[in-house]
Amino acid sequence: MNPLLAKLQPYPFERLRALTRDITPNPAFKPISLGLGEPKHPTPALVTQAITDNLKGLASYPATAGEPALRTAIAQWITRRYGVSVDDTCQVLPVNGSREALFALAQTVIDPTRMVSGERSATVVCPNPFYQIYEGAAILAGARIEFVNSDPARQFASDWDSVPDATWARTQLLYVCSPGNPTGAVMPLAEWKRLFELSDRHGFVIASDECYSEIYFRDEPPLGSLEAAVHLGRSDFRRLVAFTSLSKRSNVPGMRSGFVAGDAEIMKQFLLYRTYHGSAMSPTVQRASIAAWNDEVHVVANRDRYREKFAQVTPLLATVLDVSLPDAGFYLWADISRVAPDGDDVAFARGLLAQYNVAVLPGSLLARDVAGVNPGAGRIRLALVSELDDCLEAARRIVAHAKSLRSA
Length: 408
Known about the structure:
Oligomer: single chain
Shape: globular
Number of domains: 2
Number of helices: 14
Strand order of the largest sheet: 2-11-10-9-8-5-6-7
Number of strands: 15
CATH superfamily of the largest domain: Type I PLP-dependent aspartate aminotransferase-like (Major domain)
CATH topology of the largest domain: Aspartate Aminotransferase, domain 2
Radius of gyration: 21 Å
CATH architecture of the largest domain: 3-Layer(aba) Sandwich
Distance between the termini: 51 Å
């Protein structure tokens, strides 16, 4: 067996199941889960209709590069959304959801044999807390991973200045997530400028995970990496790859459809890897994806539903927890210290499940200890993906649980 597999850590939900296996939830309450970030809003009819109308595509082998019509639809969406022009013949590739592509890119760009100061030291840098695919991708590509803690005092911005030059010199790939999971923070242009300067100096690739970009609460949509690059005079997108998915935007997580876009030379090598990896998208899914990328009406309606939930749930929870409206995404990143001074987010989640049958994800499971600090500790991630009534009911139960802890 590949010995690197032994270095992989259990996924957060697997760890949570193990930590709550001994709990029998209170049967007086209907179970409600705010743990898994799986969209629950209805799939748009235009997508299901496109699938039904194109079932004949199941009889054909797909091309890994995707149909020209899909690449064109993606490129046109990028232009409408970000005001950026991309070449759909060499700067865009469809992928089977952003998750598999985030993993596969590391296998494409990492050279585990590269020597720095006489040592093999391929390094991947990523924010902390983080989406665990980044870590697994780095490990299985033969690289070491370095985590950069977020700073709540600076709206959860990653402390890139804390990374030594020696680490940047070894870095081959940097993962960023904007809007962030779990914090919902959006990276501003100044932060992109800093990262692009570091990439130019040290030669690493930036993988920008933007799967939450279409669920936002401000008047202005989140800044994207390709957009930031053009603003900063980098229209060739050198050493930059952006990842976007239909899962959250269009409520089709089971369709596994997204795209990557950016540096044409990286796209060329990524296509080569993917051709051997066998990761072509079904022609039927491609046609449904075209329908989704070409329509914004369902996206606006979807965003409005999230805005309504967050507008009602956030102030309710804020009566007992330190929590505020994020920039974007469908998570609340709540600090429990007001009711749990010891910051034991796992104990909070266990008690909430046992007494009120509500599942949430402890923040410490989404991060790693760095210099003795786990930046997720003392927080819980709440995925407001269910219908409004369930989210409100879950919030009421969380308030009740918090008050019981405060009076204990």
